[in-house]
Amino acid sequence: MIRRKICVVTGTRAEYGLLYWLMKEIDADPELGLQIIATGMHLSSEFGNTYQQIESDGFVIDKKIDIELSSDSEVGISKSMGLGMIGFANAFNDLKPDLCIVLGDRFEIFSAVSAAMIAKIPIAHLHGGEATEGAFDESIRHSITKMSHLHFTATEEYKNRVIQLGEQPNKVFNVGGLGIDNINKLKLLSKADFENAIDFTFGKKNILVTFHPVTLENFTAKVQFQELLNSINKLENTKIIFTKANSDTNGRIINSMIDDYVAINDNSIAFTSMGALNYLSALQFVDVVVGNSSSGLLEAPSFNIATIDIGDRQKGRIKADSVISCSPTQESIRSAFDKSYSEDFQNIVDNTKNPYGNGGASKIVVDIIKDFDLNGILKKIFYDL
Predict the structure, then answer these.
(1) 322 contact partners, CB below 8 Å, separation of at least 6
(2) Where are the beta strands (DSSP E) in the chain?
(3) Which CATH number is 36's domain given?
(4) Within this chain, do residues 115 and 70 fall inside the same structural domain, yes or no?
């Protein structure tokens, strides 16, 4: 018998990959009823219509909220947030969940949480307390923390930061990174099967590139990404897999540059969305993850491969010893490539431990949300240090 309806909101391919095993755990529990709201890039053909992946995985999407991602300008994204507020208000009124679960720090999730708060729905926030000083995700993440009632962080440091924001310690839980569950539970593809799946053959050296705009900087996406492409051009005997940028401000500029690059460089291939299975399978076979995506910090260290983290987008996040941070200039990126392939650094990479844990987060979260007393949880008392 269902005792508690749990509504999971997802807006991007990467976020869904992190939520997958949590959603499976909720769905499998006879005392919990899973509700799913898909929004944002999931409903955009430009970004791969990835709601279809959710459905092909066997989930039923209860509500689809189109926030019309036709523009990646500041004005366009603000308008999308407004549309999201309207859509989420209606969805929550229809679904009436007992608890809403969200992950991270994106603008569509901010809209969802704002509507849930006004609707007096308790909110559980995953991956709070993190720092990304170069992106407006930083402010959104901490704002979501203040609107949420239960908190599940990826490290002890992040747990302490959520408490520092005034959240009660008995409602903040360090469970580790959700993405580790994918690594442990998915049956990753062999090299031959992966090459067949993406119609691409690996070379002597191989890199995986994911680069997003640094949203607190003005008009830097084109310049920074060109510096990265110039650095890649100087690599020898290297195959390149690109995964495209999110629907952030100026994300389309990067995606257009990727298309232009792949069109004239047959040692490269690009994907709007690889999906968790293909993406994690790729990490088994590449030498370096390059760019400014959180996956280079959260998942790549578990595969004992190097990450080159470019610029300020992830500045402030906890980084494994296998991560090389560099400036978004050709000279600095080239130096990082040289270091990543050096024998001394490879020895460090081989012995790296992922600071985001060893997995099991999804089950811990479900065990807590299943029985946590939600009575009176909406009225929060600020916790003073």
Answers:
(1) 300, 301, 304, 305, 306, 307, 348, 349, 352
(2) 4-10, 32-39, 63-65, 99-103, 123-126, 150-153, 172-174, 205-210, 238-243, 268-271, 288-291, 306-310, 323-326
(3) 3.40.50.2000
(4) yes
Structure tokens at 189: 């593809």
Q: How do residues 306-352 score in pLDDT, each as one tens digit? A: 999 999 999 999 999 999 999 999 999 999 999 999 999 999 999 99
Q: Do 346 and 367 reside in the same domain of the chain?
A: no
Q: Could you give the CA distance from residue 103 to residue 89 in angstroms, rounded to a whole number? A: 19
pTM of the model: 0.91
Q: How many structural domains comprise the chain?
A: 2
Beta strands 306-310 and 288-291 are parallel
Would you state the structure tokens that stand for residue 62, as one six-digit string? 């209860």
User: Which residues face 374 on adjacent strands?
Assistant: none
Token pair recorded at residue 176: 């580790």
Closest CA to 326 of 217, 231, 239: 231
Are 239 and 267 in contact by the 8 Å Cβ rule? The answer is yes
